[in-house]
Write a structure and sequence with these properties.
alpha+beta, 4 helices, 36% helix, globular, binds zinc ion
Length: 77
């Protein structure tokens, strides 16, 4: 289990937990509740809501699936 803590501890946080469909690893990403709410309600794009997340971490937020695992499932020739 991977735990990523990107929260500012003085604010409310939300823990997004989902499972990678390829390697079955459970990922938990702790993010700012306000940013999460604005992303889920469509007020912010994910890169604006969570600018501190890497592209890989954003994919985990969206689908739970690691980029490396996507590449294994759908290798590019
Ligand atoms: Zn994976």
């Amino acid at each position: 289990m991977a735990l990523f803590n990107f929260s500012n501890e003085s604010r409310n946080t939300y823990v997004q937990t989902n499972m990678c469909r390829h390697c079955k690893e459970i990922n938990s990403i702790i993010v700012d509740m306000d940013a999460f709410t604005q992303w889920r309600t469509g007020k912010l794009f994910i890169q604006d809501a969570f600018p501190h997340l890497s592209a890989d971490d954003r994919e985990v937020m969206i689908s739970g699936t690691h980029i490396a695992c996507w590449n294994e499932m759908f290798p590019e020739e």
